[in-house]
Amino acid sequence: MHRQEWGHRVALVTGASSGIGAAIARRLAEMGMKVAITARRADRLQAVAAEIEGKGGECMSLCLDVRDEDAVLSAFDEIRSNWGGVDVLINSAGLGRVAPLMSGDTEAWREMLEVNVLSLAVFTREALADMRRRGDCGHIIHISSMSAHRVPTGTGGMYSATKHAVRAMTEALRRELRAQESGTRITAVSPGFVETEFAEVMLGDAEAAEAVYARYPCLQSDDVANTVQHILEQPPHVQIHDVLMRPHQQDS
User: Fold this and answer.
1) Contact (Cβ atoms closer than 8 angstroms) between residue 140 and residue 173
2) Is the confidence at residue 34, as pLDDT, over 80?
């Protein structure tokens, strides 16, 4: 069977102002998709949109906090009004905080749970409503983490818990879709260390983050974008469920 074609279809990418989300947004535009992008930093988001449009792509910039459900619902309304709805959802928004289970700050735990788990569920629910209306043959990809498959030693227990939740939700949704005989597919991509702003946000220290990424050649955002493109280009009878990818020298 021929590979899946997504030209002129509509994609929504969360966390698209930098790093993995921005790289995926650029790649989907290169594949011919209309791309809606969300993030909190309006200037960075608009720069990504301008880059896509400068290369002839179509891009809609939607500045919002993924924890604000009203803003998320308004964003879907805008996409539906302009482009009819979403065919592909990339849940890339996510973050980690140094917040040990023995002594962590409750607000840091809450932020990780709301961004990494609850908002992902809201975006997924709304996108699925669109996909059902638009032929029931969409694709949802969660950008998860190797921490969904092992619990690292240190202070990342709650972060790992959120990514284990994403892993469970990926399989649960696959089963829900199968029960409805849906043509929509669900995938998680679980990278190890990717050289982005993630470590700086988590550690709150640019030099410490640089040291993390200097230990060995890390994955780059385009490596993850390559994987997303490969997943989307599979023929309709193929579902890639979870991709684990790490730098060659990463131990776990």
Assistant:
1) yes
2) yes
Tokens of 20: 């993995």
Q: CA separation (Å) from 120 to 169, 204, 208, 251, 252?
A: 10, 24, 29, 28, 25
The helix/strand/coil state of 244 is strand
Q: Is 149 helix (H, G, I), strand (E, B) or coil?
A: coil
Prediction pTM value: 0.95
* Residue 1, pLDDT score: 47
**Cα distances (Å, whole numbers) of residue 98 to 118, 145, 230, 237:** 20, 16, 33, 41
End-to-end CA distance of the chain: 36
Count Cβ atoms below 10 Å from residue 120 Cβ, excluding itself. Answer: 27
Query: CA–CA separation, 68 vs 66, rounded Å?
Result: 5
Please report the domains of the chain, with CATH numbers, ordered by start residue.
Answer: 10-245 (3.40.50.720)
Q: DSSP code of 115?
A: I
159 is catalytic: yes
Which two tokens mark 179? 């029960």
Of 76, 159, 193, 213, the active-site residue reads 159
Query: If we measure between CA atoms, which residue out of 143, 224, 237, 145 comes closest to residue 185?
Result: 237
Q: Which residues contact 210 (CB under 8 A, 6 or more apart)?
A: none
129-148 pLDDT, tens digit per residue, is 999 999 999 999 999 999 99
